[in-house]
Design a protein that fits this description.
The protein is of the alpha+beta class and 174 residues long. It is built from 8 helices and 5 strands. The chain is 47% helix and 15% strand. The protein starts with 9 loop residues before the first helix and ends in a 7-residue tail after the last helix. Mean pLDDT is 79; it is low at 4-10 and 168-174.
Length: 174
């Protein structure tokens, strides 16, 4: 007896395509957030040196898209790309569960610990990754900062992420 391979439903592919085609508002929001942090905390971006012009791909596991960040201060940008897109000029890549990646960016999780516990995978220019790590530690971002929202909303966002972490135990915080 032969069992047919599982196929992705066409409706799933349709939703993925719709989400990808509507990526522009997400790019605008995340880029504005990055630039806002750069205006408020320019010293964190100064720590990056030449790495400011590097492109770092952030790849959440299980999602059909990734983010390419160029942390060039007030000229920085974040693009949404397909997760299987050619990395092109990407300097480095960080891959892991979405909630783990978010917790790294807002400082709730130790990046070194996540790396050595194999919760994240890092490839490419390690100098760029270390510089980004140091800049993130110095900036003391909140989840609200990352999403370009007022800091007063951070407790609500943390609660939402905590609930999401319980729904997906693989990504839950230790």
């Amino acid at each position: 007896m032969r069992i047919a391979p599982l196929r992705r439903s066409s409706s799933s592919h349709g939703w993925t395509e719709l989400l990808y085609r509507s990526r522009r508002p997400v790019e605008v929001l995340l880029t504005a957030s990055l630039r806002g942090v750069a205006r408020r905390q320019p010293d964190a971006f100064d720590r990056l040196g030449e790495v400011r012009r590097a492109t770092i791909r952030i790849m959440p596991d299980g999602l059909p898209f990734a983010f390419e960040m160029r942390p060039d201060g007030t000229a920085g940008s974040i693009r949404v790309v397909r997760s299987n897109a050619d990395p092109g000029e990407t300097s480095a890549c960080i891959r892991g569960p979405l909630l783990t990646l978010l917790s790294l960016f807002d400082g709730r999780r130790d990046a070194d610990g996540a790396f050595f516990q194999r919760r994240i995978d890092v490839n490419g220019d390690t100098v760029a990754i270390l510089a980004l790590h140091n800049a993130l530690e110095a900036s003391e971002l909140t989840m609200a900062d990352i999403l370009g929202l007022p800091r007063q909303l951070d407790p609500l966002l943390q609660t939402a992420l905590s609930i999401a972490g319980h729904w997906r135990p693989v990504e839950a915080y230790p």
